[in-house]
What we know:
Blueprint: H1 2-18, H2 21-40, H3 49-126
Helix pairs in contact: 2-3
Amino acid sequence: MAKPKKRAAAASAAPLAAVDSDDLLQQLQQSLEDTQRQLLSLDPTELSNDDHEKWRQQVNAVALAITKVRNARLAALSAQISAELPALQKATDRLAESLADLQTANEIISTVAQGIGVITQILTLFA
Length: 127
């Protein structure tokens, strides 16, 4: 009987795998921020001491959860950037090589232009 439960669990997990984890984290963050706004819209001075303490704990718990979700999103973004760094470094190296080639070509063009300038001056002497 354990096999059908495992299949059902795997089948229900499959759609989640297709969803971007940042999208899920963003939705969770939005939901927590909505909850935080609702909690903060209450006037704590109108609450009993017990209710005020519960409210304070809930506000703190939601704020902590929001911070953890933000940190998770930043960690995922940092990992994504780290994964891209080797490709970015290769592209930067190729650009540096291209720039060196362009500088060499520019030096050649400058030398040729100077040569043409000298030839032009010589020709103006004969003209």
